[in-house]
Amino acid sequence: MAGDQQQQERTQTQVGDLPETCLAHAIALTSPRDACRCAAVSPVFRASADSDHVWRRFLPLGHRGASVSVPPQPQGQQPPKPAAAKDAYLRLCDAGAAVPVDGEGSRTQRLWLDRASGARCYMLSARALSLPWDDGELSWRWTPHPLSRFGDAAELVGCTSLDIYARLPAAELTPATTYAAYLVYGVAEGHRGLSYPDQETTVALAGARVAPARHAVCLHRDEAEARKFRAVSRGTGGEEPRLREDGWSEMEMGRLRTPGDGGREAAGEEVVVSFEVLGWYPKRGLILEGIEFRPVN
């Protein structure tokens, strides 16, 4: 009896005995983080987890041919071997080198991937936003900026009413994913009117039955300016900005969850974000890079 049991155990198929293609197909149904974990299990799992079949699955549809593209080489040099799909995926995870989105909006929109989940990250440049006018004249000037991924940024010259809006098709984001929207900006010397905590942001799906939550924020804390314009300081209320490694500041504007299937549910849906400063007083010196949408991990 014991010998029969041992013989049966020896003849049973283990997970590691499956063909590499079968393992790769199963791993491709997980996530980039899980694929990296599988690669640490054994040499057999590593070969499957690092295969092009797995990592092409994690690439956006419009970029799945990136793994076989070869850049032009100087005359006389041998072209390199095509980059693996995993390398193409990792390149798309570099937010600093985010790729322009195909189509007419390629100069105003950029895409990259969240490294752990593979969810799409998206950025709208200042040129893709709805910026305020004041007294019939545009209150902004476009200026080259060394930190901008789009080459230039919008600098607020002066206005009394400041409100910024943006719209993005929900289908551009990964389905069934919680996203946060961030205002990416800087502050110029001689700025004015950017310190009050009576600034509000909203993030929501257009046409939602429930009114979007409004979030109190403060672009640039300056208590001296607050006391100058108001008899009593409003204190330190409002969401604080964060200084990024690339030199910009970012302010979280709010969060939302995208429609579940990314197809029928997302068709025609738009994500709407807004930033508004309450109060009619002079404002200037805001340098606007754009608005980013990133998944919340």
UniProtKB/TrEMBL annotation:
Top-level taxon in the UniProt lineage: Eukaryota
Entries under SUPFAM superfamilies matching the protein: F-box domain
InterPro entries: F-box-like_dom_sf (IPR036047), PP2-like (IPR025886)
Protein name: F-box protein PP2-B8
Organism, scientific name: Panicum miliaceum (Proso millet)
